[in-house]
Write a structure and sequence with these properties.
The structure is a single chain. By secondary structure, the chain is α/β, with parallel strands linked by helices. About 20% of the residues lie in helices and about 30% in strands. It has seven helices and 24 strands. The strands form six sheets. Strands 1, 2, 5, 6, 7, 8 and 19 form a seven-stranded mixed sheet that branches. It has a five-stranded parallel sheet with strand order 10-17-11-12-13. Helix 1 packs parallel to helix 2, helix 1 packs parallel to helix 6 and helix 4 packs parallel to helix 5. The model has no long low-confidence stretch (mean pLDDT about 90). The structure holds flavin-adenine dinucleotide (FAD). The site of flavin-adenine dinucleotide has 44 residues, from helix 1, helix 3 and helix 6.
Length: about 375
């Protein structure tokens, strides 16, 4: 049977804070966005609603003075996007063709053609895959197990308690150092006898009296009770095989993040880890008309509010592009939907057929200023 073809001006992939914020802005701008959402049976962090669906208290999202539960917050985002007419399609995008506009997105049942694409597919924290790590009720995820110290470290449950950080890279050192602001003690459990972290991060951690390193050791299980949450971790020495329980009230898994960008390999510019490269002045990727927002293009901040902020930018960039206005590319050039380029110094315009003409409008604007 032939696949159904949908044609749109704005398609958003991903329903985390970035994608839903982009949807709110695009819908209010009458762009009738189609948001492609993961299927409901998707697992863990790739579920509709994104990463906040696997956490409990969110205390740092502005506007909720008493905090809010992650899934509740995402439900509010979704209702707001629905209220302005966002259309939702629950399916995986399996393949994309960004070689020309309209871009083509392929799902099991549809081909979607779109003039602009907003990528908000997020990133996934990497997990250990050990017993006790799964989300409650199967494990202690959201009840003492976390992958984000900035998000969960300040929660009352972790204050003045002993905590475990798993990992040996920069993220692990950053998380451990951050947690010492609240915790009584932080154990860093690492599989090797030396760290992968940068020298400066290592030194900072070594000098911190609250941090103790547990070398050549892996965490094989997270233990606890439904009422108390995490009460300890089972450790195994990688050389001797010796096992013991280390009591603690929380476990922060800091073994890295993986941006959800496999779909775009070979089509969009990425850094060495796979984060999409965007312009410093916009959310534009190297392909004109494709914008990226949220964790998928942010290896530094990775917060719901920063994801929502760039989601807003992506919708406005998309709107500008569809309105024939220039949008800044990562190269510093600006480009319009017709393919007219403004050079990075703004002194010339290169027409789609390759002619260079002086950018008089810029000169006139600077004279007016
Ligand atoms: C345990 C935990 C606790 C956290 N707590 C906080 C907190 O308290 N405060 C805070 O500010 N931040 C917190 N964060 C970080 C925050 O969740 C992220 O920064 C934020 O969710 C990023 O939003 P996003 O929209 O970029 O991506 P995500 O939330 O990752 O959403 C990505 C979406 O894309 C979809 N998707 C991916 N690939 C496809 C595809 N091929 N087809 C269709 N859909 C696809 C996924 O289903 C998902 O819906 C926490 C993170 C974790 C893991």
């Amino acid at each position: 049977m032939a696949k159904e073809t949908l044609k749109r001006d704005v398609v958003i992939i991903g329903s985390g804070p970035a994608g839903l914020t982009a949807a709110i802005y695009a819908a209010r701008a009458n762009l009738h966005p189609l948001l492609v959402d993961a299927p409901h049976d998707a697992e863990k962090q790739t579920a509709p609603g994104g990463q906040l669906m696997i956490t409990t208290d969110v205390e740092n999202y502005p506007g909720f003075s008493q905090g809010i539960q992650g899934p509740e917050l995402m439900d509010e985002f979704r209702q707001q996007a629905e209220r302005f007419g966002t259309e939702f399609l629950e399916t995986w995008i399996d393949e994309v063709d960004l070689s020309e506009r309209p871009f083509k997105l392929y799902t099991g049942e549809q081909t979607i053609q779109t003039e602009t694409l907003i990528i908000a597919t997020g990133a996934s924290a990497m997990w250990l895959g050990i017993p006790g790590e799964a989300k409650i009720p199967e494990g202690f995820g959201g009840n003492g197990v976390s992958a984000c110290a900035t998000c969960d470290g300040p929660l009352p449950h972790f204050r003045n308690r002993s905590l475990v950080v798993v990992g040996g890279g920069d993220t692990a050192m950053e998380e451990a150092t951050f947690l010492t602001r609240y915790a009584a003690k932080v154990y860093v459990v690492h599989r090797r006898d030396k760290l992968r972290a940068s020298k400066i991060m290592q030194e900072k951690a070594f000098l911190n009296e609250k941090i103790e390193f547990v070398w050549n050791t892996e965490v094989t299980e997270i233990v606890g009770t439904p009422d108390e949450g995490v009460t300890g971790v089972r450790l195994r020495h990688v050389q001797t095989g010796e096992e013991r329980i280390l009591p603690c009230a929380g476990v922060f898994v800091a073994i890295g993040h993986k941006p959800n960008t496999d779909l775009f390999k070979g089509q969009l510019e990425m850094d060495e880890v796979g984060y999409l490269k965007t312009s410093g002045h916009s959310t534009a990727t190297n392909v004109p008309g494709v914008f990226a927002c949220g964790d998928v293009q942010d290896s530094v901040y990775r917060q719901a509010v920063s994801a929502a902020g760039t989601g807003c930018m992506a919708a406005i960039d998309s709107e500008r592009f569809l309105d024939h206005l220039p949008v800044a590319l990562p190269t510093g050039e600006e480009i319009t939907i017709e393919g007219e380029r403004v050079t990075p110094d703004h002194k010339a315009i290169i027409t789609p057929d390759g002619h260079m003409i002086p950018n008089f409008s810029e000169d006139m604007m600077s004279q007016e200023e």
